[in-house]
Amino acid sequence: MRPFQYGCVVSGEHFCPRAELEKSLQEYALSGQNLVIQGPRRMGKTSLVRHALGRMRGMRMVYIDLYFIKTTVDFCSRVMKGVAQAYEELSFLRKALQFASRLRPTLSIDPSGTTTISVDSRAALEPDSVSSVMEALAKLVSEGRTCVVFDEFQDILKLENASRVLAEMRSTIQFQEQVAYFFTGSVRNEMTHIFEDLNSPFYKSALPFLVDEIDPKEFTKFIKKRFEVGERTISTKTIEQILAFADGVPGDVQEFCEALWTTTEVAEEITPTCFRAALELIFSREIRGYEATMEHLTPAQTKVLRALSENGQVLLTSTSFTDRLGLAPSTVKRVVNRLFADHVIFLRKGEYCFSNPFFKAWLQFNNP
Ligand SMILES: Nc1ncnc2c1ncn2[C@@H]1O[C@H](COP(=O)(O)OP(=O)(O)OP(=O)(O)O)[C@@H](O)[C@H]1O
Ligand SMILES: [Mg+2]
């Protein structure tokens, strides 16, 4: 039994309560308010939405994961998969099949007992398949209280005909005032493009909702308890250092705690002297990724990245910084843009940070 979980959606005892956010999400779901839920990676968006909606009596959640969709066939399949998961009753599933009949759907139950609806890939290739699936979804969700969640919504932009798909989605959604649609995503630029570009069909169509760090007091209590469950002790001060190291990003905090727990013994007190062994364990698990990133960097990119790892929060384009690096400000700007586009760094509260704090620590420890 591991007391810490990361890299997955967390629930139950692994979910640290976020009372305020949960309450407002539930209120928005009840009032049919569409939301665009944004936040950095691993900040807990998916877990929060699923937890908050999952606890509401009489509220059905249709959860549609658009992670890495490539084609409209994928899109139609994911929507129907979400529908099948949300509606266990056979009468509803029959209706789903009927409403989406143009996609020639079939119902199947896999060996684990999970019900799935698959669509015919040729039918899903037809130009009006997105409208068909959206209309089917709209008809289903208008019966009873429902909230539809499109997770990783920015991946819609990966579709060749993204603007048409967005327009078709929007034209169905806009007539459904009673139903809340939550669009979650983490790649800020792309989400901004969908919801803030004047020409986008989704322009200002949903209220922005930010998911940032968990309240440190609540999170500290949670972490202490999890270590207790795992038969370790830890002081509030040490937890503060863990939170600072991981910039309060829950996924990174849990990863660090899991490594601390794994590299210590029953009844041991976790102190900062335990950090190094835990980090070494994480490095050993992730080193291939770090090396692959480093291999692809130009010398200027390496220089900027190393400087960022040492300086932490610095205005990367300030002349004192660029002078020290011996690089022209325009070069630094270009490098920063590239590192940002490759998701090695990201902008948080106006400052560039490492997307992965462990990669940053690894660079610090491995400074030639
Ligand atoms: N409320 C929470 N309590 C404790 N840990 C959490 C909580 N929310 C998230 N986490 C931690 O963060 C990890 C990522 O959570 P989740 O997948 O919900 O985040 P996300 O923002 O949706 O990430 P992504 O941007 O990758 O989709 C979880 O595996 C868990 O370790
Ligand atoms: Mg997520």
Overview of the structural elements:
By secondary structure, the protein is an alpha/beta fold. It has two domains: 17-210, Rossmann fold; 239-365, Arc Repressor Mutant, subunit A (Orthogonal Bundle), CATH 1.10.10. The chain has 16 helices and eleven strands. It has helices at residues 19-31, 45-54, 72-86, 90-99, 121-124, 129-141, 162-173, 188-196, 216-229, 236-245, 250-262, 275-295, 299-311, 319-325, 329-341, 357-365; strands at 35-38, 60-65, 106-109, 115-118, 146-151, 180-185, 207-210, 233-234, 269-270, 345-348, 351-354. Strands 2-5-6-1-7 form a five-stranded parallel sheet, sandwiched between helices. A two-stranded antiparallel sheet has the order 3-4. It has a two-stranded parallel ribbon with strand order 8-9. Helix 7 (162-173) links the parallel strand 5 (146-151) and strand 6. The chain is globular, with a radius of gyration of 23 Å. 38% of the residues are buried. The model has no long low-confidence stretch (mean pLDDT 92). Bound molecules: adenosine-5'-triphosphate (ATP) and magnesium ion (MG). Adenosine-5'-triphosphate binds at residues 5-10, 15-16, 18, 39, 41-47, 186, 214, 250-251, 254. Residues 45-46, 151 line the site of magnesium ion (MG).
